[in-house]
Amino acid sequence: MPHSRHGSQALDGDAANGIRVVRHPVTGQHGLVALRPFPAGAVITPFGAASTHRVPNYLSVQIGEHSHIELLPQMLQYLNHSCDPNIFLDTARMEVVALRDVGAGEELQFFYPASEWHMAQPFECLCGTAVCLKRIAGADTLPPSALQRYRLTDFIRSKLGQRAGL
Ligand SMILES: [Zn+2]
């Protein structure tokens, strides 16, 4: 993903203590890697909102029906998707947390439908994990059976409750 024009240098500096942007030597794709181990449940970095939008874009994270934030530190825009994620964006506490033990040098990956109901730019997933869901377009396109293994934001859980008529 390209650089955002918004941002806070201070937050970027803080996050750089534990995570770093890398560029894949073959694909050229950017990603975020852990510079040190983080145990399951650890807060990897707090985050904030660089900007808030009423409609999603390819950098934004959904926090409400018409509320989509671009993240600070800016490096979080390089979080790639995996259908077998190792981090979660806790939009209630505004923290990136480790879902399981993360080793030094391991790429940090987020399950995009954990926060996105309708995605601005759906894509065919190439994560290659055994649990890959292939087409990633938002939580609204996935059955409960596919979502139950994931930690989901409060917003997505409320949308699933509405969909189920709860
Ligand atoms: Zn996948």
Coarse morphology: globular
Rg of Cα set:
15 Å
Structural class comes to: alpha+beta
**Count of individual beta strands:** 12
Order of strands across the main sheet: 3-9-8
| Ligands bound to this protein structure | zinc ion
Give the low-pLDDT segments: 1-14
Strand content: 25-35%
CATH architecture: Beta Complex
The major pleated sheet works out as: 3 strands, antiparallel
Compressed to H and E, one letter per element, the order equals HEEEEEEEEEEEEHH
As for the number of domains, it is 1
Distance between the termini: 37 Å
CATH superfamily: SET domain
The helix content, as a percent range, equals 10-25%
> pLDDT average, as an integer?
90
CATH class: Mainly Beta
Under CATH, the topology can be stated as Beta-clip-like
Describe this structure as you would to a colleague:
The protein is of the alpha+beta class. It has a single domain, classed as Beta Complex (Beta-clip-like). The strands form five sheets. The protein has a three-stranded antiparallel β-sheet with strand order 3-9-8, with no helix packed on it. Strands 4-6-5 form a three-stranded antiparallel β-sheet, with no helix packed on it. Strands 1-2 form a two-stranded antiparallel ribbon. The site of zinc ion has 6 residues, from loops. Zinc ion binds next to loops.
